[in-house]
């Protein structure tokens, strides 16, 4: 289906917001961009935020924040947040 990536994204949102199952949410977000690298929902951003702020795994969040800047330009507030988090996580480098 052409909607499989969007479905994976929304399943990730359900796990994140309603069940607070962060690892499962990240797995579904990853499927979204694996199935469609140009998915028009912020799957990479959501996965980065979950790794960064919920699972406290900044090492996994950092490369995803960089991918947000590269692939998710459709949401400038998320891009700005990603840029800020990259600066904080790398000490401004």
Short descriptors:
single chain; 93 residues; mainly alpha; 5 helices; 74% helix
Structural summary, described in words:
- The protein is an all-alpha fold and 93 residues long.
- The protein is built from 5 helices and no strands.
- It has helices at residues 4-17, 22-35, 43-54, 58-71, 76-90.
Layout of secondary structure:
Blueprint: H1 4-17, H2 22-35, H3 43-54, H4 58-71, H5 76-90
Helix pairs in contact: 1-2, 2-3, 3-4, 4-5
C-alpha Rg, in Å?
13 Å
Low-confidence stretches: none
Cα distance, first to last residue? 41 Å
Number of strands: 0
Helix content: over 70%
What structural category characterises the helix and strand content? mainly alpha
Output the helix-strand order.
HHHHH
Biggest sheet descriptor = none
Number of helices: 5
Average pLDDT confidence is 96
The rough form would be described as globular
Please indicate the percent range of residues in DSSP E strands (runs of 2 or more).
under 5%
In short:
The protein has 93 residues and is mainly alpha-helical. 74% of the residues lie in helices and 0% in strands.
């Amino acid at each position: 289906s052409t909607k499989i990536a969007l479905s994976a994204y929304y399943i990730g949102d359900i796990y994140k917001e309603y069940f607070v199952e962060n690892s499962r949410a990240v797995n579904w977000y990853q499927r979204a961009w694996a199935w469609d690298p140009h998915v028009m929902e912020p799957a990479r951003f959501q996965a980065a935020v979950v790794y960064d702020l919920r699972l406290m795994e900044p090492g996994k969040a950092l490369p995803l924040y960089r991918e947000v800047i590269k692939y998710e330009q459709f949401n400038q507030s998320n891009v700005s947040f990603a840029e800020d988090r990259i600066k904080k996580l790398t000490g401004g480098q």
